[in-house]
Amino acid sequence: MKLASFSVGGREGFGAITDDGVVVLTGRLSGRQQNLRDVLAADAIDEARAAIKGVEPDYPVDKVEFLLPIPNPEKIYCVGQNYREHILEMGYEIPESPSIFSRYARTFVPHNGVMEMPTGSEHFDYEGEMTIVIGKPARNVSESEALNYVAGYTIANDGSVRDWQKRGPQVAPGKNWEKSGMLGPWITTADEAGDPANMAFKTWVNGELRQDGNTSDLVFSTAYLVSYISTFITLMPGDMITTGSPAGVAVGFTPEKWLKPGDRVEIEIENLGRLTAEVG
Description:
By secondary structure, the chain is an alpha+beta fold. The protein is built from seven helices and 18 strands. The protein folds into two domains: about 1-65, no CATH class; about 75-280, Alpha-Beta Complex (Fumarylacetoacetate hydrolase, domain 2), CATH 3.90.850.10. The chain has helices at about 35-40, 45-50, 85-90, 160-165, 170-175, 190-195, 220-230; strands spanning about 1-10, 10-15, 20-25, 65, 75-80, 100-105, 110, 115, 125, 130-135, 150-155, 160, 180-190, 200-205, 210-215, 240, 265-270, 275-280. The strands form three sheets. Strands 1, 2, 3, 4, 5, 6, 7, 10, 11, 13 and 16 form an eleven-stranded mixed β-sheet that branches. A five-stranded mixed β-sheet has the order 8-18-17-14-15, with no helix packed on it. The chain has a two-stranded antiparallel ribbon with strand order 9-12.
């Protein structure tokens, strides 16, 4: 099942994306959940799946304005340097532990949104990433049990302002520029997403293929990351973990292929859909 947050005529809601269109779930579930974070917290995915069976879509997909899949996540963690080929293109060594930093929801735009070109910098980079969505509270979970806490997966562009990223020992300023990333278009539930350790992965800029990889190249797996992060903090329903980016980022080219106003970025991950936005 594909779960999305969206707006129609100025009214925000959530629902399921089917082959025929969008089925609105707002107000249709027994708990009257207000958003997808509430749905996950109530463990209501099975109820949502039952609610869409045999139901005609309320809208065509092109009639809804997508919002961030979880509009109000408590936490978004990002993992850097987690694809072997990307680590090598950046001239780094394979890490022994994950490199983790935080991002905020307001630094992302949804599917079909417009990223803001950073002021005072031309070093604007893209980084397509498979993203974990947590389904239930996870604290001190084992790697063998970690995937049981995953509700599904979505797609992110961990947009980076590279010169600001390198201004100090912490990467947060370059990773938290307002509206510099992308997130969406929806959450594909874990039962339909397939194996997170084997998803084909492509990123295009203006139709030019830039990244062509597979999550099999991850240094730290989905299960490992959920287990590792849950060691130091409780992961809550709706929390997200972006898992790193494969080779082919702008800074890896000679000369660099920085994003600029008018560019169109598209990221496609097997079974998860295609996320698209432009640079404004």
